[in-house]
Specification:
Length: about 70
């Protein structure tokens, strides 16, 4: 019988969603909870450090990051 991990992440921001994506690649069941009723633009920008970009590439999100940038 395989050990399946159930993970709960509180916060659907950049870090929470990136963590959920990474954990799912390892076969974890992930639930993300966010207090905002919907995700929408709020007129602010997102700035990622070079280390943040490197981390997102390491978990396989480099292509999606570049497409959205």
């Amino acid at each position: 019988m395989a050990n399946r991990r159930n993970i709960t992440i509180i916060g659907g921001g950049l870090a929470g969603l990136a963590a959920a994506n990474a954990l799912m690649t390892f076969g974890c069941q992930v639930d993300v909870f966010e207090q905002a009723r919907s995700l929408a633009e709020i007129g602010a920008g997102i700035n990622l450090s070079p280390q943040g970009v490197k981390a997102l590439r390491a978990i396989g999100l480099g292509g999606k990051l570049e497409a959205a940038a």
